Amino acid sequence: MSLKAKPRKPTPEEQKAIDMFGPMVQRGKDLGCPADQMTNLVRAGIFLQPKQLEFCSAARECDKDGGPTAVMYGGGRGAAKTHAVWAQIFADDCQRMPGLKVLILRKVGKANQEQVNDYRQKLLAHVKHEYRQQAQEISFENGSKVILGNFKDEKDVDKYLGLEYDLIAISESNQLTFTKKKFILTCLRTSKQGWRPRLYEDTNPGGVGMAENKQMYVVPKRQNREKETGTRYIHTTVYDNKFINKEYITQLETLTGWQRKAWLDGDWDFLAGSFFTNFIHDHHVLPNGAGKFDFSKIRNVWLSYDYGFAHNAAAILHARDANGLYCALDEYCESEKVIEEQAEDILAMLHQHHYTVGDMDFMVAGRDCFSRNEQGKTIADAFDAAGIRFQQAEVDRQNGWKLCHSLFGDISAGIPTRGYVHEQCVNLISQIQLAQHSIKRPGDVEKFNADLEGNGGDDALDAWRFGIASDPFQAIKYARPVALTRNPYQMLGMGV
Predict the structure, then answer these.
(1) Which of 329, 313, 333 is nearest to 321 (CA)?
(2) CATH class of the domain at 281-491
(3) Shortest CA distance to 450 belongs to which of 439, 440, 462?
(4) Which residues make Cβ contacts (< 8 Å) with residue 341, sequence separation at least 6?
(5) Which of 1, 109, 125, 395 has its CA 20 to 30 A from that of 186?
(6) Rounded distance, CA 97 to CA 69, Å?
(7) Cis ω on the peptide bond leading into residue 220 (within 30° of 0)?
(8) Sign (positive/negative) of CA torsion 38, 185, 422, 434?
(9) Burial (CB count <10 Å: 0-12, 13-18, 19+), residue 286
(10) Assigned superfamily of 16-257
């Protein structure tokens, strides 16, 4: 008589894993995730929620002929979008395809390294890998490699051009202009058998790339044309993340206006109340519109500044060409820097364009720069000591916004454009697109603060307005120009 061994009772830890991963595997199966994909995720100890699994399923669809080549995981904040994208790359794509070369592009932030370490602990704790911090590379035993590409300004993306990547992922992709994204996608190609090159993106509505990404992903989703366009869009909100703390949800729920629509609801249509409805990215952003502004014959240059420390300090370099056309030439946006550091950075920005403060026709700053502290000193005094002498800007909001709005003309109505924005003014462009009509103050723009992570805000927009409203030529019709030390008519080459 043979005796059968009694089955071993799972340990509490094992039972917990069974209880957790069992339902996840079933949900993944229901959503179309292949068995080996779920095995890879479970082996890595990665638990994903239904919406995250929906993204992973779409990522596997990229393997099939006729499947998508670009997948966007988009919507509201706090939905753990980036977590899901990195999980798919680390635990599945890199493990099943030896020698895979992946580029993950993400904007450098204050907690950049902390974020990388956090993701490694959560996603790679059970996966053998080597992390080279200096090179920002993660490599696996099968030869697959992930390059963590960082960019602060769009020009930083150029260092990754000319290389070949089997997969490119862009975190918060709306922070990149569509033009720059198209450049980096020229690097998306492969020689690996059984692998189709693909793009993964995650983002919230808003940012310089929003309009184009909406057309690329959201519109085809709504029109049932994803198969035709080769794209896939998965929408999510904070309510899809059962592990988010309730305090964060409450923060989002207390927001109003476009921020509530974009960050809580993940609404891609929140620009319906846009203030600058006459702003068209492809037309008003240079140098895409080469020849509209004569950079070789700049007649006037000036600087405007909006103070900040916890939030961004912002400065805009303005220019007018010999034809009287205007261009926001460059921007400075930084937080948590003292005045001396800000002054140094602003002077460096001018130097990049071969200017000094002596070349500026005038330099203006917001009213708070002239408020005196207990010692009788002002922020303007500190800048003066650093070599930048500001005068008080014209700060009337409604007249200022009216002037700013008029610069863009109205193409549909045949009103000519008088002003442009250079593409390197990334923050300004984004904030122009985000600006909303004030509900309580007709003709004004609704104030909007930085996001919950301290990014964004309207500081560049305010600095731009100061410079436009204080420009004696542009402001004559609507606003009182500031008192300047130089004759404005001489500045414009018009004589006395």
Answers:
(1) 329
(2) alpha beta
(3) 462
(4) none
(5) 109
(6) 17
(7) no
(8) negative
(9) buried
(10) P-loop containing nucleotide triphosphate hydrolases (3.40.50.300)
Query: How many angstroms separate the CA atoms of 82 and 89, rounded?
Result: 11
CA distance 337 to 200: 34
- Are 347 and 388 in contact by the 8 Å Cβ rule? The answer is yes
One digit per residue, pLDDT tens: the chain, 496 residues? 444 455 556 667 656 666 778 899 999 999 999 999 999 999 999 999 999 999 999 999 999 999 999 999 999 999 999 999 999 999 999 999 999 999 999 887 555 667 788 888 889 989 999 999 888 999 999 999 999 998 877 788 888 988 999 999 999 998 888 888 989 999 999 989 989 999 999 999 987 788 789 889 998 999 899 999 999 999 999 999 999 999 999 999 998 877 888 899 999 887 666 789 889 887 899 985 567 899 989 999 999 999 999 889 999 999 999 999 999 999 999 999 999 999 999 999 999 999 999 999 999 999 999 999 888 899 999 999 999 999 999 999 999 999 999 999 988 788 999 999 998 998 898 889 888 888 678 789 888 776 555 556 899 999 999 999 998 766 434 333 344 343 333 333 333 2
Q: What is the identity of the amino acid at 189?
A: R
Task: Report whether 454 contacts 442 (CB < 8 A).
Answer: no
Residue 152: how many CA atoms within 13 Å on its side-chain side?
A: 6
Ordered by start, the domain boundaries in the chain are 16-257, 281-491
**3-state SS record for the chain:** CCCCCCCCCCCHHHHHHHHHHHHHHHHHHHCCCCHHHHHHHHHCCCCCCHHHHHHHHHHHHCCCCCCCCEEEEEECCCCCHHHHHHHHHHHHHHHHCCCCEEEEEEECCCCHHHHHHHHHHHHCCCCCEEEECCCCEEEECCCCEEEEEEECCHHHHHHHCCCCECEEEEECHHHCCHHHHHHHHCCECCCCCCCCCEEEEEECCCCCCHHHHHHHHHHHHHCCCHHHHCEEEEEECHHHCCCCCHHHHHHHHCCCHHHHHHHHCCCCCHHHHECCCCCCHHHHEECCCCCCCCCCCEEEEEEEEECCCCCCEEEEEEEEECCCCEEEEEEEEECCCCHHHHHHHHHHHHHHCCCCHHHCCCEEECHHHHCCCCCCCCHHHHHHHCCCCCEECCCCHHHHHHHHHHHCCECCCCECCCEEEECCCHHHHHHHHHCEECCCCCCCECCCCECCCCCECCHHHHHHHHHHHCCHHHHCCCCCCCCCCCCHHHHCCCCC
